[in-house]
Write a structure and sequence with these properties.
The protein is mostly beta strands. Helices cover 0% and strands 16% of the residues.
C-alpha cells in the first residue's frame, strides 16, 4: 500500500495541529482517482459532534442528490471555516434543520448561494452560532414550508448577529 505525506504548505486547508494544548484537525473532501465524492441522499449528521474539527473544506463534493442536510455540522464547536460550502447544490434538499446548530466559533457562514426552494424544515438552522455577525440569506426561499414551526429558532441565540439580509421569498 502506497502512502504519501503532505506538509501544511501543500494544503491551503491545513491548520496547526496543536493549539492551546489540544489537537485540532482539518478535513478536505476532494476527488478520489479523478472522481468526485458524491453526497448521500441522507447527508445528515456527517460532521455531527466533531469537537476538534476546525476546518472542513469541500473541493469536489457533489451534493446534487442530497435531500437531508440536517445536523450536518451540528455541535462542531471549534469549526471556524468551511471552504467550498457555497458550491453546494442544495436544490433538492428538504431538511436543513440544525445544520449549523452549536457551531459556536463560526464568525461567518456563506450560504448566499443555497437554493432552498424545496425546503420544508429549517428549524434551528443557525441556532447558537454564537460568533456569527452577519448572515446573507437573500437567496433563501421558504415558500415550501407549510408549518411555521419549521422555522422555529432559525437563528436563535446568535449573540453577535447584527446584520441579516433577507430576500423577497423568505418568510
Amino acid at each position: 500500500m502506497e502512502t504519501s505525506t503532505a506538509s501544511v504548505e501543500d494544503n491551503p486547508y491545513a491548520i496547526s495541529p496543536f493549539v492551546a494544548g489540544k489537537f485540532y484537525y482539518a478535513i478536505v473532501i476532494a476527488q478520489v482517482d479523478g472522481k468526485d465524492i458524491i453526497a448521500n441522499e441522507d447527508s445528515s449528521d456527517i460532521f455531527y459532534d466533531f469537537p476538534y474539527l476546525a476546518t472542513v473544506g469541500f473541493k469536489t463534493y457533489n451534493t446534487t442528490n442530497a435531500k437531508n442536510m440536517s445536523r450536518m455540522f451540528y455541535n462542531s464547536s471549534v469549526l471556524t471555516s468551511i471552504p467550498g460550502l457555497k458550491s453546494f447544490d442544495t436544490s433538492n434538499v428538504t431538511n436543513f434543520s440544525q445544520m449549523f446548530r452549536f457551531c459556536t466559533s463560526m464568525s461567518s457562514i456563506d450560504v448566499s448561494s443555497f437554493n432552498t426552494s424545496k425546503a420544508t424544515n429549517m428549524s434551528s438552522m443557525f441556532e447558537r452560532c454564537d460568533d456569527i455577525t452577519s448572515l446573507n440569506i437573500s437567496n433563501f426561499d421558504t415558500r415550501a414550508i407549510t408549518d411555521a414551526s419549521a422555522l422555529n429558532k432559525f437563528a436563535y441565540n446568535c449573540r453577535y448577529l447584527t446584520d441579516i439580509t433577507f430576500g423577497p421569498n423568505f418568510g
